[in-house]
Amino acid sequence: MLITPDHRRYFMTPRDQPLPLYIESIGYNGNQENVYRPAGYPCYHWLQTVKGAGEFRFAGSTVQLGETSGILLPPSEPHEYVRSQGEWETLYITFGGSQCPAITESLGLGEAALHQWDAESPLEYYGREVLGSISSDQDLSGLEASADMYRFLILLKKHGMTGSRSSISHAVERLAPLISFMNEHYADPEIGLEQMAAIPGITPRHLNTLFKQSFGMTAYSYFILLRIRKSKEWMTGDSKLTVKETAAKVGFRDASHFVATFRRIEGVTPEQYRTLY
């Protein structure tokens, strides 16, 4: 529904069987008015600044919502927002779904928070692209909008920055030389955390912080998973390789340790895994 040239809002068709994730409404406001919601909004609510700035109050905090920033609120979170300078252009999305709480929690997006991003980040334009897509296409099933919403949450997880914490995309970019090193030296059993940390030139503790932020695990755990993945490539590519030979090719000093690690991660032994292919 087109309201005015400066205010567009679209409501998605309701469904008898809700999708795991769906957009309830999406819109653009070229002159954002003041909003006061002491009981919050019944759905998850995203608000980002397109141009200008506003003052947003939630969870006992007051933040400036300027360009390259947005707020994500869970349902029923009391909040209010007002213009803080000139005209304030905003884009907003309200969404829900049967699996929405589980999805947002698994991505670490379940709590109310201010998110910021780089000007060249895909987050800067994705919401507007979705709005344009919905305005030009009748997605009666809601499936495309559901996929768009999931993609948006993934982008927010990857590129969004909260507090002093850098984005996952920044962390991965910094770790890229080390990941290349791991791919080249996975067969070397002498590689440890100290050698890994020397590649980006940081402490082992900081290295583990970056890996946990990016991949949810320590650097060495990531390296072990890489070795197991490579072992599967070796085993399925050469049926004549013994377990002992495979273990040596992926950096394990003895076959028993390799078998135990493989079984812990994959749920089957290397020999059992080979029979599946």
Automatic annotation (TrEMBL):
Gene3D superfamilies according to UniProt: Homeodomain-like (1.10.10.60), Regulatory protein AraC (2.60.120.280)
Residue stretches making up the HTH araC/xylS-type domain: 176-276
Key words, A-Z: DNA-binding, Transcription, Transcription regulation
Record keyword Transport present: no
Annotated signal peptide: none
InterPro entries, A to Z: AraC-bd, Homeodomain-like_sf, HTH-like, HTH_AraC, HTH_AraC-typ_CS, Tscrpt_reg_AraC-type_HTH
Protein name from the UniProt record: AraC-like protein
Organism encoding this protein: Paenibacillus pabuli
